[in-house]
Amino acid sequence: MRDRLPSLVAVFLLTALVIGTWWAADYAQRAVPIDPPRRITHEPDHWARDFVLIRSDETGMPINRLEGIYLEHFPDTDSYEVKQARAVGQHPGSPLTVASSDVAVMDQDGARVVMTGNAHVYRRADAENRPLDVKSDVLTLLPDEDVVYTDHPALVVHGNSTMNGTGMRYDNKTRQLQVFSSTDVKISGQDTQERRQRSSDRTTEQP
To answer: Does CATH number 2.60.450.10 belong to domain 46-205?
Structure first.
């Protein structure tokens, strides 16, 4: 029995040490306040002034440009809100387009830009088309697709022709313009004659 006594004392002390260590760790964990997970709210986490964002294609050529006087990023929607926004699209083979608005929200990893407040898109003229001018309270840009559309009332001026209606879509790659609900349409005879002349010239040039 005397021979086993030192071993029993050692086991007892080791057990007491383990229990004491566990209790101290648990007490320390409960005593020290732990910050709860951060709530993601619609509050900006970073900002910039007088900025310029440029997107390039796979060859490194700039195709889209967004600038403004003030930018905020919102982590809950991963979106950017821009004050006094100006967007420029310059896809190869397509006419240059310039859009502006009081406020713009860019989301979907830059694939969509919603422009609100005095929204305005201007597409320059090219060899085939007269300039196109679109004004609305809200205009949505799809930079990768080179498309602008709205479900709101819009005034479209194409050359000398004007279309005032609700809902429109313009594809800058195909040059196709759709106005879904027209309330006032004025088609210029000069524009119609020029389109017929260009169509006739293309037919004549065909072998």
So the answer is: yes
